[in-house]
């Protein structure tokens, strides 16, 4: 007989252990004006052990946000600027011959950090992207005959620019599927932009950010996120949403049949469940509700739905398809 779940106890644990979230947001807010959605999604990826792909125009604080977050968590940060001439060894490291000892020694690359900023990831060729892929999926790196495990928390936060496509290598579906979330970064509001101007004009340097969370606290929070209660009805709701991206006609959405070339993989269902739990944690709640699923659904699914030529001809986007699915699939 299964032991009954004490939701009240989980609630108390979550409330006590999630205090650092407000501290972290407040500390990051010293440097990052606005962009609350982006900061929240970076925290989601961190708590749900999922990598994040940020897409937005230059100058929207993507790099600054990631750098600031790593300072707030007292973790090691590494930035890799992806360029067409980059080699896999530039990321993972290589073997260096030592003539004094007549042997090869391992020189570790920038991938050996807690936070990896893969800047403009779509500018690197396939070989480099596949080297990053092993680190993202297996959380390990192979150099020569040696395999090295990457220290947790390990998070790849990649950025790509949606407008300058010349000289880029589009990420294959297999790689984009490895990202838990794809977050679209938008312009700040007018008042926020005025505050940004004031902040920059006030001094040569940005305000100093202090560590408010330890990596151990993040790992402890991750374990708590997994313990958050998810009812069977919510599980069914998640699988219905993902199945509707594959077989829309079964859910009464015949018009979507010719617009979708492929739907979400099982990884979409797993990530939607994990991200929903992490979102509940950020709300300091010990159980998942349908609104949690709906809130993060676009970020989990937008890069996992393929569009047909008909959809592109009709200017229909993944956002439109996800909206239609959320409006149609029955909410528990």
Task: Please explain how this structure is put together.
By secondary structure, the chain is of the alpha/beta class. The protein folds into two domains: 7-218, Rossmann fold, CATH 3.40.50.300; 231-328, Magnesium chelatase subunit I, C-Terminal domain (Helicase, Ruva Protein, domain 3). Helices cover 46% and strands 16% of the residues. The protein has 14 helices and eleven strands. A hairpin with a 4-residue loop joins strand 3 and strand 4 (103-108). Helix 1 runs antiparallel to helix 9 (215-227). The longest helix has 17 residues, at 266-282. It is globular.
Helix amount: 40-55%
Per DSSP, what share of the residues sits in E-state strands of 2 or more residues?
A: 15-25%
- Elements, N to C (H/E): HHHEHEHEEEHEEEHEHHHEHHEHH
Largest sheet: 5 strands, parallel
Low-confidence stretches: none
3D shape: globular
CATH class of the largest domain: Alpha Beta
Radius of gyration: 21 Å
Number of strands: 11
CATH overall fold name of the largest domain:
Rossmann fold
Biggest sheet strand line-up: 2-5-8-1-9
Structural class: alpha/beta
What brief labels describe this structure?
332 residues, alpha/beta, Rossmann fold, Helicase, Ruva Protein, domain 3, 2 domains, five-stranded parallel β-sheet, two-stranded antiparallel sheet, 11 strands, globular
